[in-house]
């Protein structure tokens, strides 16, 4: 695969839920921030429906706090939440307007997001939130440059050069994350309540869980350097 481009300064990472970026993309984000690039996170929801044993009104602030802590580990200090509803993100103009506003506010050259295809490429069905958010985001990257669409406080922004899709079944580019693999592990492990919720029947160690998962995703074979792949769409 080709190497991810490096001739940019600002990126906007947009996903549906807390933890979406940490299942791989955060390793690349850590490498970029270490190189002096500016990355901002925007999340459509607060992940309030993500833990079966915790009611949404208690879960939302918990998962928000975990996401902010997780982002800080990989050098991201701006995390915005759009307050759409977890599990039932609605396709339509309100969502696209919120995404356009975020793009105009942060003015990225690179957008990072998660797979929006129907499957993950292994037969596993993708979730409605991922599919809806991803499609709306791709549309918003074009709409953000048109001053007659969704007028607001910020000037139009037509400077998005690429969209990088993590978890795509058809990756085209990759980045070596050997130097930031441990940061990626601890960034995922920061979602401790969520990880324990996923594994409620087990006494799971979030760091061990994160290291095992990311090794499986990022290391092609024993002894290989860990890498993260993206499908890169150019505008």
From TrEMBL:
SUPFAM superfamilies: LmbE-like (SSF102588). It is an enzyme of class 3 (hydrolase). Keywords: Hydrolase, Zinc. Its EC number is 3.5.1.-. The keyword Nucleotide-binding does not apply. One of its GO terms (molecular function) is hydrolase activity. InterPro entries: GlcNAc_PI_deacetylase-related (IPR003737), LmbE-like_dom_sf (IPR024078). PANTHER family: LMBE FAMILY PROTEIN, N-ACETYLGLUCOSAMINYL-PHOSPHATIDYLINOSITOL DE-N-ACETYLASE-RELATED. This is PIG-L deacetylase family protein. It comes from Tenggerimyces flavus. The lineage of its organism: Bacteria, Bacillati, Actinomycetota, Actinomycetes, Propionibacteriales.
């Amino acid at each position: 695969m080709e190497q991810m481009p490096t001739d940019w300064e600002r990126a906007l990472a947009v996903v549906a839920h807390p933890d979406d970026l940490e299942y791989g993309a955060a390793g690349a984000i850590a490498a970029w921030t270490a190189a002096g690039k500016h990355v901002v996170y925007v999340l459509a929801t607060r992940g309030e429906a993500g833990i079966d044993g915790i009611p949404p009104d208690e879960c939302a602030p918990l998962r928000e706090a975990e996401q902010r802590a997780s982002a800080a580990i990989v050098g991201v200090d701006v995390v915005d939440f759009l307050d759409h509803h977890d599990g039932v993100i609605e396709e339509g103009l309100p969502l696209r307007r919120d995404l356009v506003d975020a793009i105009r506010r942060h003015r990225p050259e690179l957008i990072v997001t998660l797979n929006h295809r129907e499957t993950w490429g292994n037969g596993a069905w993708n979730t409605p939130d991922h599919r809806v958010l991803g499609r709306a985001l791709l549309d918003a990257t074009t709409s953000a440059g048109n001053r007659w669409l969704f007028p607001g406080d910020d000037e139009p922004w037509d400077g998005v050069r690429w969209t990088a899709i993590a978890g795509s079944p058809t990756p085209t580019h990759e980045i070596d994350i050997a130097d930031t693999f441990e940061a990626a592990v601890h960034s995922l492990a920061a979602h401790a309540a969520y990880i324990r919720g996923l594994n409620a029947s087990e006494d799971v160690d979030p760091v061990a869980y994160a290291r095992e998962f990311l090794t499986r995703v990022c290391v092609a074979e024993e002894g290989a350097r860990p890498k993260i792949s993206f499908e890169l769409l150019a505008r």
